[in-house]
Design a protein that fits this description.
The relative contact order is 0.17. The protein contains 13 helices and 13 strands. It folds into two domains: 104 residues, Alpha-Beta Complex (Aspartate Aminotransferase, domain 1), CATH 3.90.1150.10; 209 residues, Type I PLP-dependent aspartate aminotransferase-like (Major domain) (Aspartate Aminotransferase, domain 2, 3-Layer(aba) Sandwich). The two termini are 32 Å apart. The protein is an alpha/beta fold and 347 residues long.
Length: 347
Amino acid sequence: MHAYAIQDSAGLVKLDAMENPYSLPPELQDLLGQRLGRLALNRYPDARVNDLRAALAAYARMPEDYALILGNGSDELISLLALACHMPGASVLAPVPGFVMYAMSAQLQGLAFHGVPLTADFELDESAMLSAIEQHQPSLTYLAYPNNPTANLWDEGVITRVIDAVGQQGGLVVVDEAYQPFAARSWLERLRAQPQAQGHVLLMRTLSKFGLAGVRLGYLMGPKALIAEIDKVRPPYNVSVLNYECALFALEHAQVFAQQAKEIKAQRAKIFQALTALPQVRAWNSEANMILIRVPNAGQTFQGMKSRGVLIKNVSGLHPLLANCLRLTVGTPEENQVMLAALKDSL
């Protein structure tokens, strides 16, 4: 194994980590600074964290019979899920390629991980998924909606049948909606419409893509009884006073972040249109703030773009299906122009 590595982005246009490229407006920065300066940093986090839970529940329009648990980013929640489900014979299943932390958290906790390859066009392989669920009877099945790094929303009918199959085996499904601010649909709509059929489904989100990547705050929603069990393995005070006060402030100004998401989606469409004009590039439709492309030589193109001052993510080594694939984060209009110019010159 190796530790999670963060690419050095000093002096580069940073488009490698699916971050919201926009910061808070100056007037809101000042207000937030004043608010954080008044916090009692000498005290442990207090009941104010419950205000954040309530604010997130209202923001997400969480079903009334649900509860939510907070994490230091989605990463911690994924680790807590592995810890909570670690019993003899337990395992984790997820489509691959997907978010690397699903497999890593399972491995670190001593759980078996079963990766089920997507199709060549990065859709769910329904027969392979159903067969793997029947064979392995996973305790946890992850479905990213949309997926990382492919950025697509899978077929709702296939997802429903996968969820049903996991439920028949007695397992849990975690629908990971990290990129929900940029997606056309949310699985939460299905949870509201079919609470009985979806009673073994948990929905995970993060405020990182919302615009608070540096704050490190994720949340997991689900039926109260399930959330209560997962909460038993949560470390005390896992969310700091700075974390939850920043998050509360952001939710009070949610319209600012909604406008940023709208601009990111508009820029995503422009980037995709420009990519389709490049004969050497294959681009996949995106429902996230990133676009996956395939080029003739991913390593050469990645280095070429980096030498031209643009840092993206070379994902070609993550899975055979991603051969010669690069992941482009959607930035500001100016950053996107620089990125596209660097890509053209590097092909």
